[in-house]
Every structure is written in C-alpha cells, then in structure tokens.
Amino acid sequence: MPIDREKLAALAAQHGPTGHRFRNIEPTVSHGLGDFLRWQLGPGRRFPKGKRYNVLRPDAHRLNQPPEAPQLTWLGHASFLFQYGGLNVLTDPVLSERASPFTFVGPKRYTPPPLDVAALPTIHRVLLSHNHYDHLDESTVRQLHRRFGDALCFCIPTGLRPWFEKRGIQNLVELGWWESRVLSDDDEVFFLPTQHFSGRGPRDGNATLWGSWLIEIDGYRLYFGGDTGYGGVFRQIGDLFAPIDLALLPIGAYEPRWFMSPVHVSPEEAVHIHKDIGAQQSVAMHWGTFVLTDEPMDEPPRRLQQALEGQGVAEADFRVMQHGETHAFPTEVNQDREAGTLADGAA
Questions:
Q1: In Å, how far are 25, 64, 133, 191, 227 from 20, measured between CA atoms?
Q2: Sheet strand arrangement including 172-175
Q3: Alpha carbon distance 79, 129 (integer Å)
Q4: What predicted TM-score, i.e. pTM, was given to this entire model?
Q5: CA-CA distances (angstroms) from residue 229 to 23, 44, 197, 283?
Q6: Distant-in-sequence, close-in-space partners of 54: CB < 8 Å, separation ≥ 6
Q7: How far apart, in whole angstroms, are the C-alpha atoms of residue 255 and residue 244?
Q8: Is the peptide bond before 162 cis (omega within 30 degrees of 0)?
C-alpha cells in the first residue's frame, strides 16, 4: 500500500525539540531519582531468576549466503540481523558483556551473545533506536566501524551525530520523527515515534531523540520497535504503513509497572502494538538477555503466549525466537518463485 507522503510530511513538521530537550507526543509520568531509589531500595526487592537459555550458534554459510526470502537472526535483547534483497541490517547491536559505560560494573549479560562482530556477514545498515547503554554500545559500534568503515551506514535519531563523529564515524543518516531517507534504489528508512526517553549520564536527559525504524527493502516492510511504552502513536503508524510485513517488538523489562509502564510495554501491550501497526508477523525482543527489571527472566514469553490467546492472535503470528536462532519468512513473491522453479524442474 502506498504511503501518504503529505500526511507524513505534516506530522514531521509538528514534532521537534522543546528548547534543547525532546518530549513524548503523549504526556507521560516522569520518574526521577527518588522514584528510582524507591524501586531499587524498597522492601521485598528481588533479583529475577529463571532458566538459563541455550544459545544457538548461527550457521556462517547461511548468514553469508542468505536465501531470497527475508531472513532474521536474533542476537539477543534488541539486536537482530535482518537480511533481504542483498542488504544486511543490524538493529541496536549490543554484543558486549555489560550494558554499561564501564566494563566492571553495570547490567551484565544473563545470556551470552551468539556471535561477535568478526563472525558477522558484511553489514550495510545499522538502525539505532536511542542512546541507552543496552541499545547503543560503544564497543560494538567501534568494532563495526573498524571492520566495515564508511561503507556501513548508521541510521540514528536526531542529536546523536556528534557522538558518532567524535568516534570518527561519518556515514550517518540522522532523522527526526516521521522523517525518511532513500538510501538506494531498493531501500528507504523512516524514523517513527515511540514513548520513551534518552540519556547516558546525569545531565543529558532527553537531549537526543528516541524512536523506532521502518525500513522498506524492495517493497518489504520491516518495523523495529526499539524501546517503548504503549500509546496511541502506534495506531498512527498503522494508519500510515500497514500492512507491515515483519515487526520486531519488545516484550520484557516491564516490572514494576508503577515505574516501568510509561517507558516499557508488557507482553499484553506488545500484542496491542502488533495489531495497531497492522503487522503480518511479529518477533519478540528485549527479554532474556540482560537482568534489568523485576520480572522472572522466563516470564515474558509465557505472558506473551497467554496474551495472544486472550486477544485472539495466532501464536504463529507473534514468534518467540531462541538466542542465535535464524528464521526465514517466505513472502508471496518468494513462494511464487519457488513454485515456478519446481514447475520448471518437473517439466
């Protein structure tokens, strides 16, 4: 379905920073240091436990010679490798041991990464949702730039350009909400709103933008939800971009709700997003990798399954992948091509 470009441009013109800070489209509760300490130091605070996950080792041949169908590999948390139409795209690549400015303290991986930068195929695009440490990892970014140089394009939210340029990275596409950029004859990226916040230190809160990405490759639409609370913006996204072929949606880091609900969706809300944006297929992310919040590590997939049943969505339409799993998503075009090849062979 064609995109209403006039409506998209009108939305882009409406939203920008207030002074030197950004804010969500819908008013949200803002939790400060006092609320954070109340959560962290409150009575009964528990550190989540759960089963350890088997990490699959992605097949190097399959990654370097992907099929014609769109192919997705989950690298943990919000990090995916998406491959289609000759392009390899990474989302929020975090392959370090900790989601932290330090190597010795901060949230440590509960589940190790299935591969490192050296084992990746050639990467053409990186989609960055925002600058929190569990989504923007300096070590991984530096390794990617060192290996692929300026042939690799980083797509980033408004305000992050100085951070990348300070590290010698120049091939940047910096967009605000509802803005887009054609990157080649076959692909275009759109930066879209979410309900969240940004900041890497005590003084830079909301100084850079946050959001989600939609990349359209040869007519195929991949939506990467980044980090978000639930809001009406997802119905707007659906109005503009549905049907979306494949959506990567967060389902974890949601407890306690009094603290997390403005910025992190529950599994039930993730299913609402799946429906709001008109996703044909969704894949769960943002769970089982880092211990960030209070829910048991293995709870999000169980609650997702219950939410799908409760909201009348087929379990096959919202997939939970294993760490390191690679899965292909055949399209009608690919299926027609395969059927034609089989028919030719039979003839």
A1: 16, 43, 21, 20, 22
A2: 172-175, 153-157, 125-127, 87-91, 79-84, 71-76, 326-328
A3: 11
A4: 0.93
A5: 13, 25, 10, 17
A6: 322, 323
A7: 29
A8: no
Instruction: Give per-residue pLDDT as tens, 129-162.
Output: 999 999 999 999 999 999 999 999 999 999 999 9
Q: Please name the residue that has the structure tokens 């591969």.
A: 115
Separation of alpha carbons 327 and 33, rounded Å: 41
* Cβ atoms of 313 and 44 closer than 8 Å: no
Give per-residue pLDDT as tens, 162-199.
999 999 999 999 999 999 999 999 999 999 999 999 99
Spatial distance between the Cα atoms of 194 and 229, rounded to a whole number of angstroms = 7
- Regarding beta strands 187-192 and 212-217, do their DSSP bridges make them parallel or antiparallel, or are they unpaired? antiparallel
Cα distance between residue 42 and residue 208, in whole Å: 31
Q: 183, 189 in Cβ contact below 8 A?
A: yes
Q: Supply 16's token pair.
A: 């920008």
How far is the C-alpha of 169 from the C-alpha of 145, rounded, in Å?
Answer: 7
User: Would you say the C-alpha torsion 156, 10, 276, 223 has a positive or negative sign?
Assistant: negative
Tell me which amino acid residue 340 is.
G
> Whose CA is closest to 218, among 57, 331, 72, 62?
331
Classify 193 as helix, strand or coil.
coil
